[in-house]
Backbone:
């Protein structure tokens, strides 16, 4: 089966092979596999399906077709209020699914820990792209809901370092008047 490199992969080389994604296994593979199997068992469509380990020792996940926001310039629908609402609904759904489970342990939920447009699959719905799933679950771990909520604000609303610098500059100008 032929393979093609997928964009991103800042930490690992990720390839598409047919209808699957292959990525290097890690010490976290068991946890991530259990999490994705739990999502599948619940019928939640917001994550790829875990299919095991291939003959080269790589994780095998289902490929989720759609638009992933890798490039700096994106269609306006990616950052629309409607897309943000759908992102928050997806986060709430997987948090609710993991609350009180063995995977969450003594923590509130399992957090994705890297929620961003570049880890979101968008598909056309109602004439515009809308989020349907999250990918790149390799940093998922037990945590507090607020951690993922803060990550959503940082990544989807642009409240990261450049926003902070801009806000401080504005505050300084306002204070100097």
Residues:
């Amino acid at each position: 089966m032929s393979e093609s490199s997928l964009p991103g992969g800042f930490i690992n080389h990720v390839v598409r092979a047919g209808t699957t994604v292959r990525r290097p296994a890690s010490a976290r593979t068991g946890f991530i596999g259990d999490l994705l199997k739990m999502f599948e068992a619940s019928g939640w469509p917001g994550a790829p399906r875990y299919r095991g380990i291939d003959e080269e020792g790589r994780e095998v996940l289902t490929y989720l077709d759609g638009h992933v926001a890798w490039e700096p310039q994106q269609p306006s629908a990616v950052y629309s209020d409607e897309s943000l609402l759908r992102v928050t609904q997806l986060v709430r759904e997987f948090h609710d699914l993991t609350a009180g489970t063995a995977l969450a342990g003594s923590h509130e939920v399992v957090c994705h820990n890297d929620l961003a447009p570049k880890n979101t699959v968008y598909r056309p719905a109602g004439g515009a792209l809308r989020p349907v799933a999250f990918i790149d679950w390799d940093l998922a771990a037990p945590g507090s809901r607020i951690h993922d909520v803060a990550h959503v604000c940082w990544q989807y609303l642009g409240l990261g370092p450049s926003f902070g610098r801009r806000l401080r500059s504005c505050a300084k100008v306002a204070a100097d008047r």
User: Anything to note?
Assistant: The mean pLDDT is 88. The first strand starts at residue 3 and ends at 5.
